[in-house]
Amino acid sequence: MSDLLPPPRSTAVAAADEHAPSWRAHADDGDPILEQVDLKELLATIRRRWKLVTVITLASVGAAWIIAKTEAPKYQATATIRLVDTRRAMTNGIDNQPPVYGGVAMWADPIQSQLQVLDSRSVATEVVKQHPLGLRVIPKGVGAKIFSTLTVVSDPVADSIRLRFRREGIVASAGAVTARAAYDSLITIGGLSFAVKDNPGVAEGWLVSKPLVSAAIGLTAALTPRQRKLTDVIDVDYVDEDPYQAQQVVNATVDVFRDANAQAWQAESRRRREFLGVQVLKSDSQLNDAQQKLSEFRSQEHMYGTADQVTAQQAELFQLEDKRQEMIADRDMYQRLLVTLQGPWDSTRAKTLQTIISSPEIAANPVVSALYDQFVQLEMTRDSLTAGQYGSAPTNPDVERLNTLVGATQERLVSAIQSHVSSLTDRIASTSSEFSKFAGVLAAMPAKQAAEARLMTRVETIKRMSDQLRDDYQRASVSEAVEAGQVEIVDYATRPTKPIGARTRTKLGLGLVLGLFFGAGAAFLVERMNTAIRRREEIEQLLRVPGLAIIPQILPTAGEHGRLKFAGLDMALPQSRRSQRKKAGDSPALVTASNLRSTSAEAFRTLRTNLIFSQAVHSLRTIVITSPSPQDGKTTTAANLAVTFAQQGLRVLLADCDLRRGRLHNVFRVPREPGMTQLLAGQNTLAEVMRASPVERLSFVPAGTFPPNPSELLGSARTHAILEEVAGQFDIVILDTPPVHVAGDAMILGRIADGVILVLRAGNTERGAAQHAMQRLTNVGARVVGAVLNDPDRKVPQYGGYYYYDYYYGDEPQKA
Known about the structure:
By secondary structure, this protein is an alpha/beta fold. Helices cover 52% and strands 14% of the residues. The chain is flat and about 160 Å long.
């Protein structure tokens, strides 16, 4: 066997580690398996669950069809209005309310405010009173169009009114009350007033009514006002099953809204006019009283026209006082700033001087202005002379001369400012003298002149207020006379001819799309609820061991006379196949012997190759084959793996260690006894229980009789001794053991053997069961070298896996 093994680990194995498979790359991270959902996987899921998707899709399409057939068609009528300041234009600006706002607070959107009024219950109630909203005519084909007039006189007292159409006229009954009228004549009954144009062609019908509140709520629910973007234009939509009623109701709504808006403005103008009328009367009374008091005062005191003189002198006196106080404030400020200018010259004195010069009073002095300009020019000249890297030193004669000139100019400038402050003091004294003279003159005037002035002022004030009130009163009167409001109807609604909403075909298409969507979602959900292992990648991610091979479905082999019989097929096999079958025995499970060129046989050869070239092959002599649960395919895997090793030229011993339910004797068509039970119990020797097989270099030991204590036999020291004995006689020893979750035999033998292979069944072995089995094996120290994914139900291709064996190992085409 040594010539079949790879080189030592120091060469080939070490190099292989650099390119370790993906399962090793994930061996150290603790992240759970992450299943990426892509379009290919979703399509595969839908294909696998096509029945569920079909049922949900058909149900959705059926529901859409029922809705399309049972839902009554809806018609939408649209009227267009505009919110404009018609009143302001008609009154030529007399109405002093701002346009559109109508007294609404400035922080509110006026258009939206009007939309809320339009959709209010008060407008809806008025519409319901005037038009047949909330009324339903039976039979449906008759409709509200048969009425020339239909209004609500009061809240309907009857739920329905029976209408019988006779040749000569109409008979209406509401409970015990009956009314008759000719066609196109008015009938008032049950809170309704209506007239039928002509005989509608039916014997009778019913006029079903609603209470006003319910009808108004229904109107607001079906009415939709929409503002056009960045305009004051509003579209008003109304939806109804009757196109005639939809047109009438929406037109009635805009009419009611326009009239209500105009009436609200007129009511506001009327209230303002009435209020102003009362104020005008009060103002006239106060004016008459003030004029009467002034006339009486002049008659008693013989004072005529002196109030204007007193007023003028008082104004002049106030001006003098203001001027004097202003000059005093300026003088005090300049004196405080001059104190700052005393002392050595620094940046503070420079800022103070600049503040004084910037004063309008000082800046107006030509002497001060000229000296300041000279001072600034000298400083600029000195700065330009001393600034920079090559500037002159302070001891430079030119710099010293400029310093002298700057200092002299500063002193002259301060002296000029002091002179200006002194002149300001003289002016204050002169103004104070003039103020005293005017004050004496005014004090000398008789006190009765001041009283006359007060009376005249009161008269003028009341007169001005009265004139303003009269002007406002006239404006309110004109505004009240204007009947227009802020609503202008741009277009009335026309009768709709086509129903709105999706057509039957569109609804069916929508139902199909929704059905496919929810069907795919349900299929995906059902798929995600299936926690069985389905792909090789899941083995590597879940168990952190390599997936050694995928065993596809084992097809039936040739029966008697060299013919293939399976699923109703009966065909002859080539002569080469017959000879292979004859040599390999007659067991369909041994596909590696009976059908060498099948994909299943090649899968087992791939498993053998992966084991031979694994990193630990130099120490892998005894192999335990087990599975998490029964029916996973461990026995078939063990038998075919043993055959492939024997076909490779190795001496192989296959032992059935499933002492409870051994099946390998059926595969090789030999008796079960004597076998492993007798060998472990010491009843027979190895040579006595070992059987030859149809495959060269392959020996087989059946399970033997069922013992009462299988675990004790397998865990005994004799088992160790027997395994050591056969290890010296054979290159490979393969042990078929019970499932991990059924008995502890696999864990007992796994500790003794060099390696364990875990067989999993695609679509059947649960992830939790596989992980638990792996955990139990590793807990006892067993060395799991990999896992085999058995796929007798062809689950792997359904989930995106491929076998890649048919191309090279399928049957060759028959030649003619």
